Every structure is written in structure tokens, then in C-alpha cells.
Amino acid sequence: MNLLEVQNLTVSFGDKPVVHGINFAVKAGERVALVGESGSGKTVTALSLLRLALNAQLSGSALFRSQQTIDLLQVPEQQMRDMRGRDIAMIFQEPMTALNPLFTIGNQIAEVLLQKQAVSSVDIANTAIKLIASTGINDPERCAKSYPHQLSGGQRQRAMIAMALACQPKLLLADEPTTALDVSLRLQILELLSDLQKQNGMAVVLITHDLNLVRKFADRIIVMEGGHIVEQGTVSDVFTNPQHTYTRKLLDSKPVRDVVESSKVINQQDKHTTIAQQPSMQARDVRVSYPTALAGFKGWFTKGEYVAVKHANFELMPGQTLGVIGESGSGKTTLALAASGLQSFDGLLQINEQQWGQGKVQDRGLRKVVQVVFQDPFSSLSPRMTIAELVGEGLLVHSPEFNQMQRQTKVLQALLEVGLTEAQFPNLLSRYPHEFSGGQRQRIAIARALIVEPQILVLDEPTSALDVTIQKQVLQLLQRLQRERGLSYLLITHDIDVIRAMAHHVLVMRHGEIVESGSIEQILQQPKNDYTALLVNH
């Protein structure tokens, strides 16, 4: 029997339809994957089932069979509000924007339990901690007392999963639930969802661009393109014998290595050997710690310490990519923030033999040399600024002599370099970030970093939120820019395929420590550490 039956669902914004009369069904306890490129209508479809697509016009039907058969598109708003979270829950793609920054994670989970489950106030704290622990977080008590910004991307995503599962819903809509998680934790989340299915008969609609995840998790797959369902069937049938050209395109979108190898970089710079052999970035005994509150009477007089990065040592050479891999919370992003001058640290961290923290003027010069592309462009790009203002902002600081016309010319050049033009997007410079897809926003973030002509880009999970086809395009863009500009990349990622395509050397981090480092060949083919082997082989 079908738990959910969607018939002729059309979603429009104004007079523009974005989902065109689609039909699909989900059985009780079934695992269905909804895949497609960014902008194909996957997330809009899921949001429409909960009537959370703002200003959308919906037609068709979405029959949900629980105690009785209900059309989700027709029920009164009050009844729909009661069903959200209790009968149908959703894990959102971007936890930093979905979680309330003013409340701790524990309080946000407690709110769900109070409103939907009527859990007593005595049991709420323990129940919230148990839910957090069930998602694989090592220190659930600390997580419950933390605010969203105090957690890593993966920890925030798992907190979202804990909230969604609090009421044991019959249907879970999971929008990229493992986007920010490393490979080892992805399997834990899949096992967790599988266990909950067995316990509660819960069905899962998994929206994802990770085809490896689909292969391991889903029973059936639905492929969307441009708001249409172009193919659906069992996972084994679709993967072994795809019928539609678009499905074949998705399956062929694995990242391809196209970089100048280390030996060739050195040979090309033999005339300037003394310069070429100097690292663009060098770290010696870098340590990053945060003060923490101590429990009890002792906490009145002293603070504890949480060490996020312990004695990190590395070198990043000109024109090369240093990849940093490790599980969520291992210290990768903290190390990247220290390398960018955005996080205080102890130890030595030099950019072209100049140390961070030598003064405001000196650091400003280094900020032109080192630019950052963050994991989530939706939260790193101000929603109140136009594309012209966002991309050109760095010129106001680093090239104040430019007039408005010169800045606009530079902005257009930077956008052209990342593949965005006025011909494709009329009034491009006056648009806002929300008017672009995830992949397009990431291109804007890269253009914003490139406009001041840096030597080093710190890339914090630059493709983790992108579908496979857009991921491949962004990686090709980064590879081309490295070849043409001789850029050095400090690449933070949990995706081994991205490391395989981009990196020259690799650091492996766990619990704040570098447990192994070496060339890409050594790390991938002959890992010495068991944890490295676990990451590489998943």
C-alpha cells in the first residue's frame, strides 16, 4: 500500500511553472531517492508536500495515508501544521540557515518535543541528548549546550537529523542529509535511518546528488530534470541500464583529474628555482583552542579549554593543491580559518614568509594574497547586497584608487572568468544571491575571491552542497584557474573523489591532529594509518 501518492503535481511561482505535472508514489517503509541537477525541482517538490514553498501555486494532489487518507495540498493550514514534524518531517539542506542562531541545539530539540510529543520538562533534556547521541556525535552533552555557530558543518547537520527524528515520523523528507558529513559518518547516518525504518516502518524520500549514497541506501530512484521526472525504477535497473540520456549524464559525472603535476610545476619554474622552492604557506606547531565553561563551583573562577587543532605542520607550494581530509569535527575548517587569518592561533603560520598577526596594515596585505571560498555560499554571501556589491567589495579595500566604472569592469571580468555573463543572466550585477542556484552562487563566491588577484585560495568544502554535474563543472573551473594563474589551493573536503581529482599532497586529520601526510599517490595507494585507509576505501 502506498503511504504517499503524488498525482499531477505542478508547482508554479507567478506564471512560471518549475515542476510540471509529476507523478510518483512512496510505499510504507520504502526508501526512495530523488536525484537531479541543481534547479531540477527536487527540493521544491519536497517543500510543496509540506506546503513550505513560499508564494508557490500548487495543483494536483498528494495523498498521504495515515489513520485516514489526506490530500496534503488541500488540508487546512492548522491541520498541516500539526502534521509537520509529527507525521512528516524534513531534514533541510542548509542547517546554518535552518537552525535558530539564538537558541542552543538542546533547546531547539526540546521545543519540538514539547509541541509535538508532550514530553515532560523533567525528561526533555535527557531525551534531547539521547537523540543527539543517536546521530553519532561524540560529545552529545556539549552539543546540546552549544549554539549552531559553535558546531562544525557536519555536527549541525546531525543536529538537524536529531530534530527531524524526534517525533518518529511516518515519512522523512531528507534534503541532502549527508552533505556535510565525511564518508565514514555517512554510513552511520544511513544505518541510523535504516534502523529507525525497521522500528517505526518509516519511509524516506532522500534528495541527494551523491549517487554512491543512492546505490547503498535506496530501493527506488526518481530522476528529475527541469521540473520533469525523466526516469524512475529500481536502483539496480537504473544504474545498470539507464534509459534516458540525462540519467546517463549523471552517472558519468565523476570528477576528472586535470592538474599540472608536482614535477611539472617545478620544471616550469626552474629559472626561478630559489623562489619556486619557497612555500606559499607554511605552518609550524599551529595550535587552536577555545575556552569552555567548567561545571560546578570551579567554573566560577576558571575556564576549561577545548583544543581544536593540535601542533599542525604543513607546507603549501606555489601552483599546487594541499588537500585536508578527515571526519566532521576533526579540525579541518578550524585549520583553514587559522590559515586565512580569521582565527587566532598559537605557533607559526607564514604566508610568503610573512606571519599573520603582525598588525592591521600587514595583515591587510596578506588578506589580498589569501582569499577564502566557504562551504555554504548561501550563508557567506549577504542577502542584502547585489552581485556587483558582493563581488566588488574586495576592491574597495585593496584597490581604493579604482572608480566606479573601473570596479564594474573588474567585476564583469571576474564573473566572466567563472562562467557568468550578462547574456545568460540579464541585469546580472543588480541581482541578489537568492536568484541563483547553488552552483551559480558558488561561482559568484569564487569570483569574489579572485577579483583581488590572490596567490592562495582556501577552499572549504567548495563542492559539498553541489550535485555531481555542477560539482564536476566547478572542479574543472578551479583546475583551469590554477593552471592559468598558478594559484595554490588549501582544499578542505571529505570527498575522496575531489581529493583524487585536485590534490598534489594530502593531510589526514582526526580529533584535531594530523595523523598522516604525504603525496596523493602515497595516501591513496599506500596509506599507513588505519583511519586513512578507512576514509580512502569508502
Explain the overall architecture.
The chain has a 6-stranded mixed beta sheet with strand order 6-7-8-3-9-10, with helices on both faces. The longest helix has 18 residues, at 183-200. It has 23 helices and 20 strands. Helix 17 (387-398) runs parallel beside helix 19 (438-450) and helix 18 (404-417) crosses helix 19 (438-450). It is α/β, with parallel strands linked by helices and 538 residues long.
Question: Which keywords apply here?
Answer:
about 550 residues, alpha/beta, 6-stranded mixed sheet, about 25% strand
Produce a short descriptive summary.
It contains 23 helices and 20 strands. The chain is of the alpha/beta class.
Gyration radius from CA atoms, angstroms? 24 Å
Please indicate the percent range of residues in DSSP E strands (runs of 2 or more): 15-25%
How many separate helices?
A: 23
Which structural class matches the secondary elements? Answer: alpha/beta
Morphology call: globular
Distance between the termini: 35 Å
Average pLDDT over all residues: 87
Largest sheet: 6 strands, mixed
Number of strands: 20
